[in-house]
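Renewal narrative, Specific Aim 1. Our central claim is that a sequence can be written position by position from structural information alone. The example that follows is taken directly from our test logs and has not been curated for this report. It begins with the structure tokens describing the chain, in the order in which they were read.
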């Protein structure tokens, strides 16, 4: 009995997180109430609050789940055995693939921080933690390419990515992706020829 109950709890938590992820990403965080998440996940309010004592904790869990997906994708590229320049290209291509997908609604992290501007708020901190990891990862990759300090190139990459994520919602996603990839190639050319 205990195993069955645990399986149900885990299944309910997964449904809650999957539902919140889908709705928060497509419609915004503040626009979505707990009642809607509970109804669409087909759980009770008590079940929601047992797993996520507040909406903010659900939002943080959503961002952590998105972060884990990004980390897994980049970890796959890093452990692929490709040279660092190809890993950077693979990461850039995965970003453009996201931008040109039919369900793209911008960067989950940039969208969330726009709704939670207080730097002390747990949601804002979750966004900053993800961005720090991403910047550190990109810096580490650029450190393996060329001999000049990698931080400026990594910051440039992150800014190009942020711009592409914003522009991908506003203009032609294919053009945005192409422009982003050209910018990344420029960074790689600079690093390898500096």
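The sequence written for that structure reads:
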């Amino acid at each position: 009995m205990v195993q069955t109950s645990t399986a149900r709890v885990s299944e309910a938590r997964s449904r809650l997180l999957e539902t919140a992820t889908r709705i928060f990403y497509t419609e915004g965080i503040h626009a979505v109430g707990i009642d809607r998440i509970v109804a669409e996940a087909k759980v009770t309010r008590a079940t929601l609050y047992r797993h996520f004592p507040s909406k903010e904790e659900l939002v943080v869990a959503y961002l952590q789940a998105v972060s884990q997906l990004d980390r897994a994708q980049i970890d796959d590229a890093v452990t692929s055995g490709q040279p660092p320049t190809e890993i950077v290209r693979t990461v850039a291509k995965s970003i453009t693939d996201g931008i040109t997908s039919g369900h793209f609604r911008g960067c989950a992290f940039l969208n969330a921080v726009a709704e939670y501007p207080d730097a002390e708020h747990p949601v804002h901190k979750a966004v900053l933690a993800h961005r720090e990891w991403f910047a550190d990862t990109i810096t580490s990759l650029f450190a393996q390419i060329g001999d000049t300090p990698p931080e400026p190139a990594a910051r440039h990459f992150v800014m190009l990515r942020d711009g592409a994520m914003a522009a991908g919602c506003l203009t032609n996603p294919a053009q945005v992706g192409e422009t982003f990839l050209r910018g990344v190639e420029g960074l790689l050319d600079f690093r390898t020829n500096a």
